[in-house]
């Protein structure tokens, strides 16, 4: 067997082991979610959907889910709107201190979240604000915005400037050219930013734990229930639903990514799927 074949086989085995390590725990979620036993172990005892029924009947869980959805939708919209302004400015204009400003805006992407959470907690309490869903939205917007900017900067950078110039030559104002020409072309990037921000906010734990006060969110609720073994199967059912939701969001994001590539005539390099 040649050296090239040995290297190819080794890489293939590594890839398979890596994928098993990454996705095997996720694959166990639906298996135990439909298991009638309360102990998370093999062999399985039987098939049941009772854990899903208990999940939907749990008032505290519904409240936590509602809070998380409100936070995730609000944070993703705010982060994407602010990201559009920042990405537009960074890709179309040159101004003093642009590099430093963009560096500070992107800083939450690399800072430890516990540092960001503690800093926000001190600032918010020092300002006399009561911890609530609103304070979590502020924190999640700060965390999600760098990811939105990274996606939107790519979308704005790949846009041909001559299209905007042609709109100006035809008598359009800067606002109408942005609304009628630029915005539709970068819409796949906007949708991708909304989806990634929504996903990050929905499963973010540290900032929600510090800033939510007495209001439960989905991650903090799940964390609180892990202390009770009898609640674990219901958490498995909840995890199964969240995985299914993530797959749907991934499919939607891939659809709009390919639609955007087709619109601008770009080359598909693989994307998400």
Describe the structure.
The chain has 273 residues and is an all-alpha fold. It is 75% helix and 0% strand. It is built from 11 helices and no strands. Helix 3 runs parallel beside helix 6, helix 3 packs across helix 10 and helix 7 runs antiparallel to helix 8. The protein is globular. The model has no long low-confidence stretch (mean pLDDT 81). It is a multi-pass membrane protein. This is Spermidine/putrescine transport system permease protein.
- Share in helix: over 70%
Shape designation: globular
The CATH superfamily of the domain at 58-211 appears as MetI-like
Mean pLDDT value: 81
Family: Belongs to the binding-protein-dependent transport system permease family. CysTW subfamily.
Pfam family, one: BPD_transp_1
Domain ABC transmembrane type-1: 65-253
Protein name: Spermidine/putrescine transport system permease protein
Describe the structure using short key phrases.
273 residues; mainly alpha; MetI-like fold; 75% helix; 0% strand; globular; membrane; transmembrane helix; transport
Summarize the structure.
The protein contains eleven helices and no strands. With 273 residues, it is mainly α.
How are the SSEs placed, and which strands pair?
Layout: H1 3-33, H2 50-57, H3 59-92, H4 98-106, H5 113-126, H6 133-157, H7 161-169, H8 174-202, H9 206-211, H10 218-225, H11 232-264
């Amino acid at each position: 067997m040649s050296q090239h074949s040995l290297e190819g086989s080794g890489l293939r085995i590594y890839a398979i082991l890596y994928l098993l390590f990454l996705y095997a725990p996720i694959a166990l979620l639906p298996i135990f979610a439909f298991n009638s036993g309360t102990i998370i172990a093999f062999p399985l005892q039987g098939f049941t959907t009772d854990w899903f029924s208990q999940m939907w009947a749990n008032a505290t869980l519904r409240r936590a889910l509602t809070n998380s959805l409100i936070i995730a939708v609000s944070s993703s919209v705010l982060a994407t709107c602010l990201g559009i302004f920042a990405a537009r400015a960074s890709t179309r204009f040159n101004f003093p201190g642009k590099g430093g400003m963009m560096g500070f805006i992107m800083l939450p992407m690399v800072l430890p979240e516990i540092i960001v959470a503690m800093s926000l907690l001190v600032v918010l309490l020092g300002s006399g604000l009561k911890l609530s869903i609103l304070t979590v939205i502020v924190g999640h917007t700060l965390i999600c915005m760098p990811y939105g900017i990274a996606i939107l900067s790519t979308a704005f950078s790949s846009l041909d400037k001559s299209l905007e110039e042609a709109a100006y030559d035809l008598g359009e104002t800067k606002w109408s050219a942005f609304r009628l020409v630029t915005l539709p072309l970068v819409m796949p990037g906007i949708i991708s930013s909304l989806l990634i921000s929504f996903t990050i906010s929905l499963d973010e734990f540290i900032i929600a734990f510090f800033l939510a006060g007495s209001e439960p969110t989905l991650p903090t609720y799940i964390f609180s229930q892990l202390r009770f073994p009898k609640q674990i199967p219901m958490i498995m059912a909840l995890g199964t639903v969240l995985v299914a939701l993530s797959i749907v969001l991934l499919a939607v994001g891939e659809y709009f990514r390919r639609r955007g590539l087709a619109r601008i005539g770009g080359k598909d390099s693989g994307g998400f799927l």
